[in-house]
Every structure is written in structure tokens, then in C-alpha cells.
Amino acid sequence: MKPLVHDPDNRLWLLSTPSSGYVLRLAPDDSPRHVAWGPRLTLEQALSVSVPSGGDSSFDGVIDEEYPAEGPARFGPPSLQVRFDGGARGVQWHYLGQESDGGRLSLRFRDDHYPLEITLHYRVHDDSDVIERWATLHNTGADHPIEVLRCDAAAWTAPPRDGYRLSHVTGGWSAESQLERVPLARAETVLTSRRGHTSHQANPWVMLDAGDATEEHGEVWGAALAWSGSWRIAVHHDPDGRASWTGGAGHEGISWTLRPGQRHHTPVFAGLYTDGGFGAASRQWHAYQAGHVLPQAGELRPVTYNSWEATGFDVDEDNQRRLAAVAADLGVELFVMDDGWFGGRRDASAGLGDWTPNAARFPRGLGPLAAEVRRLGMRFGLWVEPEMVNPDSDLYRAHPDWVLHMPHRTRTTMRHQLVLNFARDDVADWAYKWLDELVGQHDIEMLKWDMNRAFTEPGWPQRGADGERLWIDHITNVYAIIDRLRASHAGLRIETCAGGGGRVDLGILARTDQAWISDNTDAVDRIAIQRGYGQLYPARTMAAWVTDSPNPHTGREVPLAFRFHVAMSGVLGLGGDLLRWSEPDLSASRAMIATYKDIRPVVQHGELYRLGDDAVQYQRGDRVVVLVWRLTSRPPHQPVAVRLAGLEPGARYRDEDTGRVHHGHTLRTHGLVPPLPPGDYSSALVRLRRV
Ligand code: DGJ
């Protein structure tokens, strides 16, 4: 079936992905209506789907909106709220026409009185069940601005079911991505960030199931927003069991104007339906990002060393050289010097904004260190935090007006820093210029782009009330800078970071290569953080370091093998003070890194199967990697078999370390007893190859 079928007589569209179908139509009043989202349908089946009448009482309203605009008899959470000159609100839809091309569909509408055009966009791919949606607004008038109070990317609707559950992540700094799977309240549930960045507390994706999905079975509907600033997803669950959700950039209460002639494009809010349970949902999301989001998805990510937990702010040429020598000897491929290398930086209180090497610490500049790192056979990377400034900096002394601020309001500092207003083109130009020079001068191969505080006093006094558009323009300018840097420096790779995992989403991942998903490097805490992260985001983006024991954050002592095995389930890095590691630990690390390089294609490019809470399996071609963690040994202190998934039942698999041959069927049904050593915090790695 073609990806897109239009039935003009019935004013209906059917979008088909490899395993799902999506149907919408126009109502007699021209408003776009949702019909179906689920398994694939033929056109005949799509036409036969019963559509709800919406009830007959004067208290009911339209319930099947495809993109609910505030307007007549519509009472759910709106995707679109606008106010026109003279005070009128809402939209009266007038259909203008459609454009389609392969898997792309655009439906154009205008308001039937005011000068507003709305285009709803859809895109399907032939290798993915993810459907991309976004919207465009266009003020076609010549005289008056239109006030935009909300402009979401899309609204998604799942069919009526009993007992919907909502899966999403919650958390905080150092505890990101904690998976929640809860009954969906018959109410409006709002997931949001009001912080100016994606946030540690919530992440812009949802998954819904009818209470019956498992890791391997069941229907799951979900959506993820490609946006790195404030955002909002409002889920509406009505008494008839219908669930819908609208999502887009910005939180409640901010508004901005669409000037005459101006167009606004929302970010993408992508949706996925699968009947293969949460495991299949995750694998589909991962494959979609590999195929359609990540810039260099096919590259194997290097084993990284990062200086932060070893030297903190006290970096200098000598200590970085010494760390680099040990890292290279262990097999590290990319050496990243973290915070502390620039301006008057000695702790968090000064220097941000002054992006020239600190002369006392790097009297010869960064060149000799970069050269030494390369001589040792590694790539060279650097930490930056471009969107921030310390009041104690030359930049702030020269440009106090460059930060977010409001008249007669205190400029609230957090971590002693203020947020630069990247919505200003002069600030964005300044940032691009110094980043471009820095990267070019030292051929920097990795930038760790950090962002360590939320927005406060988000004002731009010269712009007055319309300054609120900065919530959007700050982010689009961050995107534009990264895009330009990548375009002019082909070898540059970027790690997204905001005090750990405060800025991970499909928007930033479209222009970065990996994410620092948490400042918490305790391997035990990390299991849950990585598990929540992996619900949506793929292992090839999940940077994970092995650090010191006791862990500097938690004080927990965990064996080296366990720390490695947890970090090896993502993009392996080292982050401890290697100069203090014992010879036996260094030698074990060398071996672990070599093993990781062997399994890296399977972990980074394979398919993930979660095997219970404390084991993961990656599979690629004929290779399978299983990582198992056991926190506490319990009587009878024998390892318990772990059932593998996704294997061919009729095939045989050889354990690459023991030589033992297993049947796919029995690995799936009876499992594999992992070679866990005795004691707490024990872990194992199993490599299998199909024979
Ligand atoms: C927060 C990051 O998450 C850390 O890894 C480190 O880069 C610090 N910032 C540096 O200030």
C-alpha cells in the first residue's frame, strides 16, 4: 500500500507505515478530525471506522479533533490558542487544500475571517512506524500582529480502551529518567518543563497502553517532542476511555506575537503505535532516531575519558597530560578536558563567558595539550557552556544587558551564573564566532555543550511583552549555532549536557551525537537512570563513565567489573582519577575496554531487549551481548537463569568465552545462568554468536 492515500470524495486521508495506520478526515465545517491510529488499515476499512458523534447535550462538545484549536464548542486542552486584533480568539477552519509527495502530506487551512493560515504536516518513512507531525502558522495579513498563546506541534489520539496507563519519566538532578508507569487519571495530566531547557524532572515523551502491555506484548501508543526548551504535553482522558494528548514548545502562560507576513514552524511531535509491547516501542524509537534523527548515527562512538571527576575545576596542562597518558594506555580514544580551562575560572563563581585559555593554567594555550593528546593516539575534546555567564566575568562587565533580565527585578543567580539571551542575534553571533575559532584553532573533535541552570527573569526589556518569544528563539538560535558549527567543522562531534541529563530530546539529538545523561555516576543508581533513558533514546547516544570507588557522589563502593558492566551498556567512558587507580585496576580496565571495543557494534548498533530490571540484551546480526547485574546476593546465593529474547528459536548460539553451545529455543524458554561471581554487586557479561 502507498504510504499516503487520499479519498477526496470522503475528504479522508490514510497514512500507512510498515505496521501501522493513521486516518484523518475533514468534518462538514472543514475542521480536521481524527479517525483512527493503530494497526494498518485498507482504505475500505478506514472508511468504515465508526466516528464518535460527540454527544447530543448542550454540555458535550467536539471530541475527535485532529488539532484542537480553541473555538466553538471545543473544551479539551487546545493545541492552538490565538488572539486577533480586536480581541477575537479561536479558529473557524476553512480548508484550502492539500499537498502530498511520497510520505509527506500538508493540509492547508485558513481562518474564515482573520488572516491566519494553519498548515498541518505529516511525514511517514518506509522503514519506520514513527509518524512525524508538526504545524505551521502564517500571518497573511499586512496590518496586525496575531497573539499566540499556544501553538502545539500536534495532538495524538488513542482509541477508547478500559484502563489506560501512562508511562513517562520523572526525576531531578542526579536522578533523571525514573520510569513511571501509572494508571492514567480520568482528567487532564500535564507533563511540562517551565525551565527553558528540556529538564531533569520530566522528558517530553509519553507512552500509553491499555493496562495490558508487557515488555514483549501489547499495544502501545506514544509520542516524543523534538524540542529542547520549555515544553508541555497535556494528556486528556475522558470518561468514555478515550485518550488524547497535545504537545509542543513552551509552557502555559507565555505568549508572543506573529507579525504580519511572519511564519512560525513548530518542532516535530513524532508518534508511534506498536502492538509489540514496550520493548518493541523502544526498539522502534531507537531505529527511528538512528535512521532519521541522529546526524552521524552510523559511527561507532569512541571510548572517552573526561576529566571532571578527577580534576574538577583544577585543570592545568600538567595534570591533563598525566591523565591523558594513562587514558591512552588503557585504550581510550577521545580525551575530553572538562570545566576550568578558561578565563578566571577557579570554581563555579567566575569566568563563564571568557572563553580564552586561562594563562596561568595553560601558559602556552591549549595547543600543546591538544597535540600531546593526539600524539598519544586520541582525539581531543573540550567542555563549553556557551549560554551562560558569571557576573564575575569580563563578558558580563562589558555586556550586562546580554542576559535574561527584567526591569526592577533581581537577576537571580544559580550556580553563580546568569543566562545569556541567545534569542538576541548579537549574542548568538558572538557565541558562534568564538566557538568557530576555538574549534577551528584546535581541530576539536568533541564539544561537551553544557547548560547548568534554568531560566529566571526571562525578559528582554527592549522587546517588552513580545520578548517572551525568547523562550523559542533562544533554542532555535542554539540549534542554528550547532548546525553551523557542524557544517563548518566536518570532524566535530557534540555531546549534549545540562548538568547531566537536563537537555535530552529529539530536537537536540538531531544535532548532537551523544548525551551526558546524568551527573550521577554511581553504577547502582545508574541502572534505573539508564533504563528510563533507554525507553526512548538509543544506547549509541548514552554516554556512561566508569568512575572512582567509593563513588564521589554517593560514597558507595562498587567493584570495578560492576561499574564497567553498567557503563558498557551504553557509550563507554572513564571519568575517575586514573592517577590514583591501582595497577590491578588499571590492568583490568585495559582488558574491559578491549572487550567493550569487541562488543561495541552490538551494543551501539544492535537492538535492545530489557530482560527484567537487572539485565539487558543487545543483538545485531549473529551476535548477542547480555549484561547482568545483581545488587545483592540472596539465599541460596546461586545465580538465577535469565531468559533471553529475540533469538531465533531454531538456531544455536555459541558462548564466545566458554565455547558452550546453547539452543535459541532453550535460551528463550529456560534462560541462561549468568556467570555471576559470588557476593553483592556482582555482574556478568555474556557474548554469544549464532553458529
Ligand atoms: C555539569 C556536567 O554535567 C558535569 O559533567 C561537568 O561538566 C560540570 N557541569 C562542569 O561544570
Written overview of the protein:
α10 (523-533) runs parallel beside α11. Strands 6, 7, 8, 9, 12, 13, 15, 16, 20 and 21 form a ten-stranded antiparallel β-sheet that branches. The chain has an eight-stranded parallel barrel with strand order 22-23-24-27-28-29-30-31, surrounded by five helices. It is of the alpha+beta class and 691 residues long. 21% of the residues lie in helices and 29% in strands. It is globular. It binds (2R,3S,4R,5S)-2-(hydroxymethyl)piperidine-3,4,5-triol (DGJ). (2R,3S,4R,5S)-2-(hydroxymethyl)piperidine-3,4,5-triol binds at residues 308, 338-339, 383, 450, 452, 497, 499-500, 516, 519.
**Attached small molecules:** (2R,3S,4R,5S)-2-(hydroxymethyl)piperidine-3,4,5-triol
How confident overall, as mean pLDDT?
97
Strand content: 25-35%
Q: Tell me the major beta sheet.
A: 10 strands, antiparallel
Structural class: alpha+beta
Question: Which descriptor suits the 3D outline?
Answer: globular
What is the straight-line distance between the termini? 37 Å
By DSSP, the count of extended strands is 37
